[in-house]
């Protein structure tokens, strides 16, 4: 559970990191001022010695990151912001999803109940009858295509 807490307290951790880096920089500046440098010269020398502060912060954050989880959360936040911005689109999207899920669940339930063992009708067609029905459908289709003057594939 500690990792979950760390994941959602990233901003605080990043702020703590920035503060700590700035404290080290200030310590170095005070140390250089104590040796006799002016405050401005000491700040420039401390920054030169310490390096690029922003780059150091970014490198530290990169080490701490969980890219897949953080990118997912950023995408989720962005998607929610866009849905909040466009309520008409949101309503259509939610209704479409609801309708699709409902139709899918209904069809699955229907097919599942029909195919469940013991729920077949008492009088089922024999395999010969099913084949003859298929042949009749093909025959009627060919007759209809001929009547419409549509060329039949060989």
Describe the structure.
There is one protein chain. This protein has 7 helices and no strands. It has 154 residues and is mostly helical. The two termini are 67 Å apart. The protein is rod-shaped, with a radius of gyration of 36 Å. The longest helix is centred in the middle third of the chain and has 29 residues, at 87-115. 81% of the residues lie in helices and 0% in strands. It folds into 2 domains: 2-81, no CATH class; 91-118.
Key attributes of the depicted protein:
single chain
Topology:
Layout: H1 2-8, H2 10-34, H3 39-50, H4 53-64, H5 67-85, H6 87-115, H7 127-147
Helix pairs in contact: 2-3, 2-4
Explain briefly what this protein structure is.
Helices cover 81% and strands 0% of the residues. It has helices at residues 2-8, 10-34, 39-50, 53-64, 67-85, 87-115, 127-147. The longest helix has 29 residues, at 87-115.
User: What's the count of strands?
Assistant: 0
Low-confidence stretches: none
**How many domain modules?**
2
Shape: rod-shaped
Question: Helical stretch count?
Answer: 7
> Largest beta sheet, briefly?
none
The residue fraction in helices comes out at over 70%
User: How far is the first residue's CA from the last residue's CA?
Assistant: 67 Å
| Rg for CA atoms | 36 Å
Taken in chain order, the helices and strands follow as: HHHHHHH
Beta-strand residue fraction: under 5%
Helix/strand-derived category reads mainly alpha
């Amino acid at each position: 559970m500690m990792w979950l807490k760390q994941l959602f307290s990233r901003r605080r951790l990043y702020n703590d990191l920035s503060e700590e880096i700035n404290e080290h920089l200030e310590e170095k500046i005070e140390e250089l001022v104590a040796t006799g440098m002016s405050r401005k010269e000491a700040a420039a020398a401390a920054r030169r010695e310490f390096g690029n502060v922003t780059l150091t912060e970014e490198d530290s954050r990169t080490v701490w990151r969980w890219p897949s989880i953080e990118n997912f959360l950023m995408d989720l936040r962005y998607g929610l912001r866009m849905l909040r911005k466009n309520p008409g689109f949101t309503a259509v999207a939610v209704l479409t999803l609801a309708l699709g899920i409902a139709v899918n669940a209904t069809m699955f339930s229907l097919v599942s109940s029909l195919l469940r063992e013991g729920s077949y009708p008492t009088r089922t067609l024999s395999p010969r009858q099913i084949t003859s029905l298929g042949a009749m459908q093909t025959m009627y289709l060919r007759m209809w295509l001929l009547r419409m003057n549509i060329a039949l594939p060989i």
